[in-house]
Structure prediction request, 128 residues.
Amino acid sequence: MKLRTQFHSEDMHKARSAAAKSIGAKTYSDTAEVLNFFETVGLLTRLGALDEHMVWHAFFYWIDGYCQAAKDDIEECRRDDPTSWADLMFIHRQVTRIEDRERRRAGAPAKRTPNLERFLDDEARPHG
Prediction:
């Protein structure tokens, strides 16, 4: 998956670090590159170019983390324009459904509460 390689590239690590810092500061000024990446993943999945189970396997942690951590900003954008982040929301719903199903299959509780502070701290750290 070239998308996976792109997501783990040095440039994307820098973008993810900036996004995590801006989310933590509640400025949301540097989230576009990361959210746009997942918007594209959502579009490709919705159109059938990507398998949603493969997307769950490769990206659930980050899709869920960024969607939950940037929830206030995403919701504000969607209030102004309901089409904003539509494919991001689509892929978040799809991979969350798969995550819940897989957790039940494994005998784990379906409901999970991510530690968003730890997620943002991990993402803000330099990778490499």
Q: What stands out?
A: The mean pLDDT is 94. The chain has one domain: 2-124. The CA atoms of residues 20 and 120 lie 5 Å apart.
